[in-house]
Inverse folding.
C-alpha cells in the first residue's frame, strides 16, 4: 500500500512520524513523508521517500508571546496551504494527517477520493477532563473546559480559513468553510489515533467515537547507532549529569540561557550537558559538555534529570527513560505537558520560561535529583509506556481500514 504521511511544524512535530513511517515500511508498505525541506534528512535516514511541503518552520522557536505565536502560526499556515496540493502523489492509497496538516488534508482527500486517518500528537477534541492544550490554563471545570475546547477549534478554523479556501479553489472544489469541513469530519466520526501515552493523557470518556489514544511514536534511529565517543567519555567520567535543552524553542536567548544553566548547575553541584538546539546553548568546563542533536532514546536513560521545554516529544522521551524532569515551558502546548508531568510526580512544578532564573533552576535541580520520589514516579510511568505499542496500533488500524 502507498501511504503518504503529511506532517509540518517544528522538529518535535515531525520526528515522531519517522518512527511511525519506518514501522509501516517494515510491514511492507510504501511510505512517503511529506514535510518541510528542513526535515528531509530525517525522512531519508528512516528509509522513507520524501515530499516537500512549502513552508519554513525556522524562526518559530524564537516566539514566546501568545499573540506573536498566533501571527507566526497564521503565516506558516498560509505558506503551507499555497503548495499543499503538490505533495499528493498520484496513486496514494492512504493519507495520514497530523494535527497541523489535517485541516488542509481533508480538502485534498475530498478532491482525490483518498481515504484518510488522523495521526495526532496532541489532544485537540473538546473534553470536560481538561482545557484546550494550547491555552496553558488549569482546569476550568467540566462545562467550561468543553466550551473552551470548542472555542479553541473555532480559532483554529479561523487560522486555516484563508488557506483552505485557496486550496479548495485550486482543487476545483465548491466553497466550504473550515468550520463546516470540521463539523462534517466530526459527524462522520473521522478516526484519529493519538500518539501519546495514556499515562500522561488517559482517553477522555466524553470523546466521540473514532478517537483513540495508542501510545507514542518514537523518532527513528538505527539499532546500531551509538552515542559519540566524547559523550560516552563524559558520561563515564563522573556521576550522572543533567541535560539542559530547549529543542526548537528559545531562539535568540542562547547567551543568557547558557550562563544561567552553568550557574544553576554549579550552585546545585551537578555535572551538566547543554544541548545546543535553536537557542544555541554552549558552555565549556570539565563538568560541562555541549552537544547537538542526539537520539533521546540513547542519551536520556544515562541522565540524572532533564531540564526541557516540555514539548510533547521531549516530555515523552524523558518519561520513557525514567528520567525525572524540570519542565520550563515556553509556549503553545508546553504548559499542558509540563503540568501533566508534575501531576505524575515525575517532575517538579513547572518554571515558566519568562520566570526562569539560575536560583529557581538550582533549587528545582536540588529537589529533582536529591529526592528519589521523582525518579520512582518516572520509572513507574516508564514501565506503563513500555506496554504500549503506538506504531503497532496504527498498523492494525491502517490494515483494518484498507482491508489489506
Amino acid at each position: 500500500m502507498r501511504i503518504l504521511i503529511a506532517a509540518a511544524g517544528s522538529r518535535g512535530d515531525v520526528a515522531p512520524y519517522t518512527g511511525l513511517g519506518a514501522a509501516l515500511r517494515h510491514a511492507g508498505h510504501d511510505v512517503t513523508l511529506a514535510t518541510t525541506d528542513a526535515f528531509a534528512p530525517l525522512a531519508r535516514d528512516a528509509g522513507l521517500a520524501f515530499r516537500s511541503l512549502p513552508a519554513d518552520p525556522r524562526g518559530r522557536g524564537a516566539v514566546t508571546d501568545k499573540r506573536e505565536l498566533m501571527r507566526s502560526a497564521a503565516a506558516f499556515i498560509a505558506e503551507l496551504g499555497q503548495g499543499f496540493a503538490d505533495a499528493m502523489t498520484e496513486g496514494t492509497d492512504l493519507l495520514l494527517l497530523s494535527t497541523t496538516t489535517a485541516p488542509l488534508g481533508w480538502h485534498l482527500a475530498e478532491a482525490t477520493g483518498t481515504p484518510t486517518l488522523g495521526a495526532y500528537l496532541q489532544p485537540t477534541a473538546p473534553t470536560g477532563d481538561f482545557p484546550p492544550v494550547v491555552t496553558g490554563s488549569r482546569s476550568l471545570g467540566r462545562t467550561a473546559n468543553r466550551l473552551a475546547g470548542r472555542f479553541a477549534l473555532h480559532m483554529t478554523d479561523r487560522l486555516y480559513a484563508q488557506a483552505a479556501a485557496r486550496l479548495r479553489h485550486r482543487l476545483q472544489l465548491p466553497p466550504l468553510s473550515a468550520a463546516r469541513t470540521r463539523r462534517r469530519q466530526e459527524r462522520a466520526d473521522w478516526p484519529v489515533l493519538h500518539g501519546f501515552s495514556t499515562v500522561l493523557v488517559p482517553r477522555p470518556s466524553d470523546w466521540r467515537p473514532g478517537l483513540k489514544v495508542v501510545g507514542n511514536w518514537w523518532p527513528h534511529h538505527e539499532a546500531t547507532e551509538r552515542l559519540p565517543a566524547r559523550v560516552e567519555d563524559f558520561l563515564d567520567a563522573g556521576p550522572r549529569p543533567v541535560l539542559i535543552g530547549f529543542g526548537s524553542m528559545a531562539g535568540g536567548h542562547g547567551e543568557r540561557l547558557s550562563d544561567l544553566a552553568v550557574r544553576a548547575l554549579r550552585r546545585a553541584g551537578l555535572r551538566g550537558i547543554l544541548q545546543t538546539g535553536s537557542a544555541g546553548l554552549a558552555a565549556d568546563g570539565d563538568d560541562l559538555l555541549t552537544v547537538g542533536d542526539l537520539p533521546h532514546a540513547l542519551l536520556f536513560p544515562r541522565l540524572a534529570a532533564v531540564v526541557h521545554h516540555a514539548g510533547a516529544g521531549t516530555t515523552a522521551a524523558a518519561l520513557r527513560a525514567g528520567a525525572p524532569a524540570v519542565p520550563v515551558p515556553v509556549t503553545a502546548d508546553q504548559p499542558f505537558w509540563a503540568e501533566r508531568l508534575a501531576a505524575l510526580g515525575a517532575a517538579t512544578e513547572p518554571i515558566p520560561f519568562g520566570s526562569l532564573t539560575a536560583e529557581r533552576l538550582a533549587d528545582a535541580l536540588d529537589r529533582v535529583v536529591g529526592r528519589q520520589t521523582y525518579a520512582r514516579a518516572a520509572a513507574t510511568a516508564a514501565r506503563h509506556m513500555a506496554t504500549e505499542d503506538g506504531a503497532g496500533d496504527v498498523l492494525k488500524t491502517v490494515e483494518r481500514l484498507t482491508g489489506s
Remarks:
- The radius of gyration is 21 Å.
- The CA atoms of residues 74 and 159 lie 6 Å apart.
- Residues 142-170 form the longest helix (29 residues).
